[in-house]
Amino acid sequence: MSMPQSPSPSAEPRRGKPWWLIPAGLVVALVFLALGAWLGWALLAHKLDGLEGRASLIDEARTREEIALQKKANEALEKRIAEAKKILEGDVCTVDNPFGGLPAPPESTAPPAEAVPTPEGGRAFEGNLLDLVEGAVVLVLSPRAEGVGMGSGFFVAPGFVVTNAHVVAGAGDIFVTSKPLGGAKPATLVASTNATDPGEADFALLKVGGAPATIQPLAVTTTLAKLDHVVAAGFPGIVMAGDQAFRRLIEQGDASAVPEMAVTSGEVSVMQDLAGGVPVVVHTAGISPGNSGGPLVDRCGRVVGVNTFLRVDASQAVRVNYALASAKLIAFLKSQNVGVTVLSGRCVPANPPTEAAAPAQGVSGGQGASGGQGGGAATPATPSK
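^ thats the sequence. predicted structure below, dont judge the formating
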């Protein structure tokens, strides 16, 4: 029989580890972490103490400067208001002093009527440019079987009027009218170039009986340059259609009814020699049928050309105005022994214009300044009523 054996020391039961040590360690770690963070933040706060607590979103120095300037402006305004109140305490409006102590209103700055300077060798004229032109320009009427043809003309010598040949071509009787004439007067065709196509020397000379001696004929000049300011004067049909005096003259035969002359202004675009060798002035002073035979004058009232025809390009909606250059006109008048006044020298107007007209543009096709439109060559035709 065997004896029971005692248990071995190695067989003793093991003791378990304390489980609460793990969460306790975590708590202690968190406490130290929080303490460190607090100490760091306190140290940072201490270092930031005394510094600017926020970033400025505006330029404060500039703002202070602007405020100071505004204060000065306000002080000046208050001073002016105080002065005005002091002035207003008295009699502001009296018979002797209608404006009281207030400053007088400024004088009118409206430009005076353009005076006509006397060119060297020319005769002085009492009036302005418009007075001179209105006194010399006439409406030319030529009754025909198909109606009444019309155009413009101007006195170049006492009793003598120049117009275009195509204005009076085929006419039996010819009449001219203007305010200085006092109504319609009969005119006699003295000479004509018999040239009615654009680009030809298209001139006619009329003799007007009983023309007042007070009418001053227009002088002529060949002195001209690009961009010179010019004025076209005459009786365009499109304007006359609305003139009641013109309607009485044509429809009722009232010889005393005188329509108003029309003027347009522009600049010289270029001087050219056309295919026939005739010099022309291309300009921007608007002309239309009825202006044929009327003068193109510079700002000194000197004739630089005779408005004769225009060219139109309908596809580009542009038009160019042509005046026969005065050199050909002078030659024509001399051939008729007409004592026209020819002046030279640059024009220096008393009151030059302030606005420039648009330059002309190249075109094709054309029409006469007193007649219809064409596709290639320009073909003037006197309009009929």
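Confidence is low (pLDDT under 50) at residues 47-58, 101-113, 354-368, 370-385.
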